[in-house]
Amino acid sequence: MSVESLGVTQGEVRDRPFAVVTAACLCAMAVACTPAWREHVSPKGGFSVLMPDTPREERALEETAAGRREVVSLSAVLNRELWFANRGFYFVAYADVSDNRAEGVSPERVLDDEREGAIKRLSGRLVREEAVRLDDHPGREIEVATQAGLVRARIYLADRRVYHVVAGGGAEASSEDARRFFDSFKLLGVAGS
Predict the structure, then answer these.
(1) Homologous superfamily of 36-187
(2) CA–CA dist 98, 49 (Å, integer)
(3) What is the pLDDT of residues 32-56, one digit of tens each?
(4) In this predicted structure, what is the pLDDT of residue 7?
(5) pTM for this one?
(6) What are the domain boundaries of the chain?
């Protein structure tokens, strides 16, 4: 790589070597830390998705209006190593809807409750919401303003399983990478079985 390819002349290198070297190092670090997007398949979760890193899986119990449920989440954080970089995040979480809830409540009500729960967990404010679909499954796309920035989520109800597909952190919620992440989310077979 030549200095000219960085848009710097030989004279600038001679006159300001520290600034040029610093800029070149920062550019090289940014390129080196650009994530390699890979498909992640979750047979237990019943989905596949592109993520910018190998996701970390976590399990937690959550109290809901319908009772306690296990939530499984897979998350990836961008630029974890770089203190000066945007630390965007991507995650998919899923949980099964309880038997009594699945039988007695409309899909719209389940999605409303999931939206309200997401806003509460984020300590945010709903900015935008629209109905979406994934194959034949109903969903919602929401944007939530938080103290840490905008968070964008798609929430789907597939049979008896709820999926939260989420991107956020700085400009990540509306980035091209976020679009790729959301558009890559696919269900495998029957969810919630």
Answers:
(1) Mog1/PsbP, alpha/beta/alpha sandwich (3.40.1000.10)
(2) 25
(3) 445 678 999 999 999 999 998 889 9
(4) 54
(5) 0.76
(6) 1-32, 36-187
